[in-house]
Structure formats: C-alpha cells, structure tokens
Amino acid sequence: MTATEGGKHAESPCRAREVFARVGDKWSVSVIHLLGSGTMRFTELRRGIDGISQRMLAVTLRGLERDGIISRTMYPVIPPRVDYSLTPMGRTLLTTITNLVDWADDHLDDIVRARAAYDLRSGDTADAAADTAAKGSDLTGWEAEAR
Fold first, then answer.
1. Among 25, 28, 128, 132, which has the minimal tally of Cβ within 10 Å of its Cβ?
2. What is the pLDDT of residue 143?
3. Cα first-last separation, the chain
4. Which residue from 35, 19, 14, 51 is spatially nearest to 101, judged by alpha carbons?
5. What's the Rg (C-alpha) of the chain?
6. Residue 11: predicted pLDDT
7. DSSP H helical segments within 25-79, as ranges?
8. Residue 103 scores a pLDDT above 70
C-alpha cells in the first residue's frame, strides 16, 4: 500500500513526524542510549550527558515517560529515590539508537573534513571557519555523550 492510498499507512508520514520529534532530538537519543545499559537515577543521567541542563533533562525524561518509552519508579524513602529505565517499547528503540550513535562515532572525522572542504569551496572562510569550529565542538560533545 502506498502513502497515497487510504488506511493507516496514508497517515504514517504525518504521525511519524510526531514520534521523530520525541525520539529524534539529541537529548532523547542520549537518554535512551544511556538507559540501554540499565536503570539509572537522575544524577547518573545528568553526569552521563555532557551539556544537558537539569531542567532540560527533566523535560526530556517527562516527555519520554509520557510517550511510554521510559518508566519512572519512585521509592518512598528519605531522601526520595527515583529510578528511570527503558520500557519494553523503549527497548525496541535501543538497536536503532545504538546504530545511530555508532554511525555518528564512525563518521565524526568524515563530517568535520566535509565541513572544512565545503567551507573552503564556499569562499566565506571567516564565518564558515567559526561555524565549523562551533559545530565541531557540538560533534565532540555528541561523541562524548555516546561513550
């Protein structure tokens, strides 16, 4: 069945974008990847994701929990203890996320070289070099998050 025919598949591209918005952002990818190694507490996740703020991690965890990708377990102890883990549905994403993280690690140097070559061809080397340096540091942060 094609996307232009009726039925469930006709709605897929629009509905898929909604899911991509949740699981495709860099913080969600990082959280899912980290939780692939097991249950973690908030502070462990925060330490494991370079550059994420406490607020952004809380927002990301809440969204992933709402979508059924992670579960949040609160223990009635003092101080309160909260654990996060992947749900069975979230585990089905793990292979895809791991492949994406591995791809990024494998191609980081290629991307940096391609950007440098593009910047040289574009002729706007001052602005392009600054942009490449800034984005290169983002990639380095991504590489650190993936490990």
1. 25
2. 46
3. 40
4. 35
5. 19
6. 58
7. 26-35, 42-48, 54-66
8. yes
